[in-house]
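> call design_seq(struct)
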């Protein structure tokens, strides 16, 4: 009687290799992999295991994957939120001691483009200078760049490539409409954000 009972337990244990890795590969590793924005890799068991408890918490309250859109309005083709069944799998994995399982069951990790992830852009705009961050508290800098567009343009997608992802945390992109700003290349100073909104900033993005 004991043997079949044990067998049943083993077959139902939620493991990293078989159950959890496919979820991480689909929802997490575009940020949680070496060289990307998130603090640790979730591509392999050794890197993910120390974070198991924290993963359980972050997922349960939907802090991860980050998604600011209000779930009650609209549907988005790139909505990264976890399905309830995936949240339950992660919860069971953490509760079960976050075991690895059989590494041979690990699926192939997704392939990522090494350059522009959304495809080669039609237009690239460089900030035109190398900015060196001074040690100390968080720093907010403002760079004005020319689009050189001659007419109104529709954007399908935009991507930002910081030179050093370890120190760049956020970027806000605004359209500057005022003539007064048109010739400037860089404005630094705490009052800049207020001036932008006073002068008609049009759109905002993270
Ligand atoms: C869009 C990028 C992105 C995706 C997708 C993403 N993360 Fe994160 N994650 C981050 C960043 C950035 C941080 C660091 C947060 C900070 O420093 O404030 C982080 C931090 C964490 C932390 C540390 C503790 C915490 O809650 O801040 C855990 C755990 C975590 N992520 C788990 C996950 C899991 C599990 C998934 C997939 C289900 C996921 N993340 C998907 C970007 C992402």
């Amino acid at each position: 009687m004991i043997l079949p009972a044990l067998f049943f337990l083993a077959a139902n244990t939620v493991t990293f290799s078989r159950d959890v890795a496919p979820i991480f590969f689909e929802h997490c590793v575009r940020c949680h992999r070496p060289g990307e924005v998130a603090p640790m890799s979730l591509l392999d068991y050794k890197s993910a295991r120390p974070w198991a408890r924290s993963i359980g918490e972050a997922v349960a309250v939907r802090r991860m994957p980050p998604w600011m859109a209000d779930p009650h309005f609209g549907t988005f083709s790139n909505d990264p939120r976890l399905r309830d069944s995936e949240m339950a799998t992660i919860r069971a994995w953490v509760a079960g001691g976050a075991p690895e399982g059989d590494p041979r069951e690990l699926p192939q990790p997704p392939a990522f483009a090494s350059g522009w992830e959304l495809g080669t852009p039609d237009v690239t705009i460089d900030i035109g200078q190398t900015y060196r961050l001074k040690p100390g508290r968080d720093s907010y800098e403002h760079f004005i760049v020319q689009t050189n567009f001659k007419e109104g343009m529709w954007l399908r997608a935009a991507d930002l490539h910081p030179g050093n992802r370890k120190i760049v945390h956020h970027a806000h992109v605004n359209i500057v409409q005022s003539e007064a700003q048109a010739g400037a290349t860089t404005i630094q100073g705490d009052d800049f954000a207020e001036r932008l909104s006073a002068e008609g900033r049009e759109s905002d993005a993270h």
